[in-house]
Amino acid sequence: MKIIACIKQVPDTTEVKVDPKTHTLIRDGVPSILNPYDHFAVEESVRIKDQIAEVSVTVITMGPEQARSALMRCLALGADDAVLISDKKFAGSDTWATAYTLSLAIKKIGKFDIVFCGQQAIDGDTAQVGPELAQQLGIPQITYVEKVEIDEKLKLTIHKQTEEGYQILETKPPVLLALLPPTSFQPEHPPMSSILKAKKKPFKVWDAKTLGGDESKFGLDGSYTQVIKTYTPPTRGECEFIEKDDIKQAAKKLSEILLKHEALIKR
Amino acid sequence: MGIEIILDKCTGCALCVKACPFNAIKIKNKKADIEANCTLCGSCVESCKLNAIIIERPKLSNKDLSEYKDVWIFVELRGKEIKKVSLELASKAREIADILGQRVGAVILGEKVRHFCNQIKAYGVDINYIAENDNLINYNTSNYAAILTGLVNKYKPNIVLFPATHIGRDLAPRVAATLKVGLTADCTGMSIKDGLLLQSRPAFGGNIMADIISPNSRPQMATIRPNVMKINNPDFSLKTEIISIPVDIDEKARKIILKKTIKTTKTGTKSLDEADIIISGGRGMGSPENFKILEDLAKTINGVVGASRAAVDAGWRPRSDQVGQSGKTVSPKLYIACGISGKIQHQVGMKGSGTIIAINTDPEAPIFDIADCGIVGDLFEIIPALNDELKKNLKKE
Fold first, then answer.
1. What is the spatial distance between Cα B19 and Cα B44, in angstroms, rounded to a whole number?
2. How many domains does chain B fold into?
3. Which domain holds residue B320?
4. Which one, A53, A87, A246, B262, has least CB within 10 Å?
5. Domain A2-217 classified CATH 3.60.21.10?
6. Is the pLDDT at A13 greater than 80, yes or no?
7. Window 130-189 of A, Cβ < 8 Å to B
């Protein structure tokens, strides 16, 4: 069985701070990390590989040369080989163009059974590339996947999160699964021995020419959406503190604020 | 196509370096140099006082897009009800359609849905496209996407809006990819500019906002975050048209089989995504039993209780209650954070709330950075006192 895991290198958005004076992003020293959702997807791929005979895991990403380190991390986590899809022509890709480019790479890899990806990436949070990729590959998708079970006959039992709980779904490959890590998930650093092993694993770099396909569908040209402006959101005013020396008085003051609030008036 | 620095004009002033939200510009040999991680967002072009940066974008296509008319919404249902977010979408669609001089269309799919038309019309829906079939009772990607794609191809709407819910975020990209059109996720603002749909959305964990257009493809599609758009006052005297779409669904063709649906939230309670008021508890709650005081307050002001990751990890609350990066993104009108320090991971999930109130014993807790109103103190003293005070006042009415 062939598993393909799609990953993305992202700036650690939790490290991004806003300059309180200029209201611009302070990005100095913000580390690039493997998107935590994708980290979980790779771990799940490897877990299945360890469980079922004859499974190989190929990990792919579209990104600049720097994204190599994110792929190396995935190899250290146990993936078998990696493909970096990199070309200046891919710059400015929106979710559709990204999905198109990834779909070409996956078709070039050949036969596959399961495509894993993270539910979303922490920099854009769109959650669109997974379903758009599934559509372009012509396979079904399951998003918000909390749990994957697989048996020897490759029957998949999936827990899909819903807004009120979860669903249990059954399916068979080929399928694309967008994974949601458990809240307790902490991306772990692989041991040094695995990092060294990763360096010996097959690593390919494919550019636009290697992929083939319609060049007008790459990057900015191929993107149906255009970002015309980015700006920092309006900041909130200062926090108004209520003195709590007298609990009753404080509670009264806060209740007055709440009673005037539209959410309570509207009831 | 792409970005270019006009070297003759560039003085290496580095204004663009500061403006770039992606850290993709460096000054090399006193000139700006664009790195590979540039997303062509255009922030630098605006920042440059010397017009030394040019981004060449695809030209507006010559395709005749004028045959695409009307503003559509996908109406999400929950059981026997229309979800509140659907009314928000209808209201926003009405506003946009009025600017464009077009009609509002609503797509309603389910087992029996005709009666919903009389409800949603009150928010300004002119035409309902309905498909009724036993096999549509539960949402499934393939059938829903196929029906929507077919409807769009037949009736050619100008704009299609989806709720940014679990269902909307699964369905919209599938439809957009099939139609080969642009799709913008999780919009919190929407307007018309030069005849185009201007879509505003947060990115980078809410640290920046982006304005996005889809000039060359129709329909223009977006998902809209729940609880952000205002709901119109309903007018049930409005007229509405119903077009029923015959559908034929072969169950055997379905590749993904629904075996079981498990609800972990109590029936009858509003979900976090839809709540106007959320009262969240964090590590400071200390135990699952202590959440009772939050439940009591929620009862008084008709709110829903949420939790921080710390409270969920401790096993005090179910995962479906979690607000934050690895939980839910919520935007209630009022968010009351109790005993939550408010690390960035939590803030990402609730920053979009209307008013934020924080109660925490630690005056340095980051939650106070984004709170509108705060009390540095013991929530176990304040919350019951507040509840008593509110009860007293709300009873009078």
1. 6
2. 3
3. 272-396
4. A53
5. no
6. no
7. 130-132, 134-136, 140-144, 157, 161-172, 175, 181-185
